[in-house]
Amino acid sequence: MQLSARQIKALKNIIFESDFLQGDFQVPGKLGSGIGAVTFDSLINLGLIERGESRRHHGATGFRPTDLGRAAARQL
User: Fold this and answer.
1) List of long-range contacts for 5-13, beta carbons under 8 Å, 24+ apart
2) The domain containing residue 29 runs over which residues?
3) How many CA atoms lie less than 13 Å away from 19 in the CB half-sphere?
4) How does pLDDT run along the chain (76 residues), one tens digit per residue?
5) CATH number at residue 51
6) What is the number of domains present in the chain?
7) Which of 32, 42, 67, 72 is the most buried (most CB within 10 A)?
8) Region annotation Disordered: residue ranges (predicted)?
């Protein structure tokens, strides 16, 4: 699987933040600049992340890695 630099940055940031939040969904604004809807959608379509409601951010939509996403990141 070939990912762009932006996709790699987003995936690594999502994994880091999800670990920090103990598996909760992290809102996009906390994941770094230059990462937006197109990047998130592409990672969702590849099955590397999932979208859901964040407990910490009172139900705001956020992202967390899937098991496939974690495995892919270990290969980067």
Assistant:
1) 6/34, 6/35, 6/39, 7/39, 7/42, 7/43, 8/76, 9/34, 9/35, 10/35, 10/39, 10/40, 10/43, 10/49, 11/43, 11/48, 11/49, 11/65, 11/69, 11/72, 11/73, 11/76, 12/73, 12/76
2) 5-74
3) 7
4) 799 999 999 999 999 998 988 888 998 888 888 899 999 999 999 999 999 998 887 878 999 999 999 999 999 8
5) 1.10.10.10
6) 1
7) 72
8) 55-76
